[in-house]
Q: What sequence folds into this?
């Protein structure tokens, strides 16, 4: 299989926690602009897969390529930089800095990447508007609802214009209206900016907007279907 | 109508009398209306005419209930195609999905593959419905939301069915 076109490529990735084997050889490829839904029962390895793709976990075996670069072959700083600039991540459970105002939370990846403060805040504000929480820019995450936090996490994932967006249950804390709005923001990143979007979801309505469904079972791909 | 294909499925284990076919059907679907003898014989007659089943034994002097039918190779191909083919998602389509699933499991067909394709069909239909632009008709969003909610319920059942089938496969092997 030629991975030349894929912006994210996992090849036979395996991962075990101390006692649990969570991934038993998972391979997948995402092209720019592609939207893939990862589904499957609780505990089948969805979050582990996402964390490996994001570089939060290091696989026991197999390779991961982002934009054609083998993540394992990079030095630590290069890897961190690749993750910061090319990959946007929305985690299932909180990832915002708890006592940092939302605007700063969202601006953080840009600031870490050396962007000027005013410019970073302007972009952050723009993204907070897109996800519908511009009014909460000065609030800190501990003062917010789960849904508001989720919106902020999406803003933070997209603020750098990543080529790969990884999202774990991105609409899990929202009602159907709010979930649809946030999903639309994520889908636009794929459809208009050409980001590859890999999202874990239990929600069939969310999965229905994907180009492909990958269903995991017990650490393996059970099926992969085009939608 | 699926009765013809179910009859083919019921014959896939080997030649049988119409009576066995009826009994088999009622055992596969204990919660649905029993298959009437009349329907079994008209169905078998039509299948024979179309070359999907053939008469392999006719006990002398017996009536139709003494006739033994068997699947032809054309009939077996037709059954396989039917079992592999997902159902167009529409009102009441879950009944047909269940019929196919039961028949696939009972005849050793590719039930998991069928369920995967069915999931894809349902998900695509949901996307179509959700992408349909609003019009002036005040009832059309109500109808669309109703269908989406039912397709969503079907999908949750398809998901459970996939897990159950994989479990059963796991314990059998
Ligand atoms: N930190 C951990 N330590 C040990 N085992 C873990 C850890 N995180 C996950 N696991 C185990 O690894 C397996 C896969 O977990 P994972 O979180 O990837 O599942 P999931 O598909 O995301 O489930 P859910 O739908 O509930 O979020 C499970 O058996 C889980 O118990
Ligand atoms: Mg998870």
A:
């Amino acid at each position: 299989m030629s991975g030349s076109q894929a912006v994210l490529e996992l090849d036979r990735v395996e991962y075990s926690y101390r006692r649990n084997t969570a991934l038993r050889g998972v391979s997948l490829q995402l092209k720019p602009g592609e939207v893939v839904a990862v589904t499957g029962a609780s505990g089948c390895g969805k979050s582990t897969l996402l964390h490996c793709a994001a570089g939060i976990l290091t696989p026991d075996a197999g390779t991961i390529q982002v934009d054609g670069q083998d993540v394992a072959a990079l030095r630590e700083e290069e890897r961190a930089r690749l993750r910061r600039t090319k990959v946007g991540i929305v985690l299932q459970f909180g990832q915002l800095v708890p006592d940092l105002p939302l605007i700063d939370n969202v601006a953080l990846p840009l600031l870490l990447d050396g962007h000027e403060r005013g410019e970073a805040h302007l972009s952050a504000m723009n993204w907070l508007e897109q996800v519908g929480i511009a009014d909460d820019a000065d609030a800190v995450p501990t003062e917010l609802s789960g849904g508001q936090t989720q919106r902020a996490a999406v803003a933070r994932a997209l603020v750098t214009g990543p080529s790969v967006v990884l999202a774990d249950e991105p609409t899990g804390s929202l009602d159907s209206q709010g979930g649809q709005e946030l999903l639309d923001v994520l889908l636009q990143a794929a459809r208009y900016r050409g980001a590859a979007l890999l999202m874990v979801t239990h929600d069939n309505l969310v999965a229905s907007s994907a180009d492909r469904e990958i269903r995991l079972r017990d650490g393996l791909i059970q099926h992969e279907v085009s939608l | 109508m699926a009765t013809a294909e179910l009859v083919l499925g019921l014959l896939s284990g080997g030649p049988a009398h119409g009576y066995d076919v009826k009994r088999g059907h009622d055992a596969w679907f204990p919660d649905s209306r029993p298959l009437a003898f009349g329907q079994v014989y008209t169905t078998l007659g039509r299948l024979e005419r179309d070359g999907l089943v053939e008469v392999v034994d006719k006990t002398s002097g017996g009536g139709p209930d003494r006739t033994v039918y068997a699947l032809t190779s054309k009939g077996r191909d037709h059954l396989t195609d039917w079992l592999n083919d997902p159902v167009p998602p529409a009102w009441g389509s879950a009944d047909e999905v269940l019929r196919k699933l039961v028949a696939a499991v009972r005849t050793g067909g590719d039930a998991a593959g069928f369920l995967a394709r069915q999931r894809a069909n349902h998900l695509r239909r949901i996307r179509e419905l959700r992408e349909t632009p609003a019009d002036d008709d005040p009832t059309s969003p109500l109808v669309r939301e109703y269908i989406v909610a039912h397709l969503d319920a079907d999908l949750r059942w398809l998901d459970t069915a996939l897990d159950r089938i994989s479990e059963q496969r796991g314990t059998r092997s």
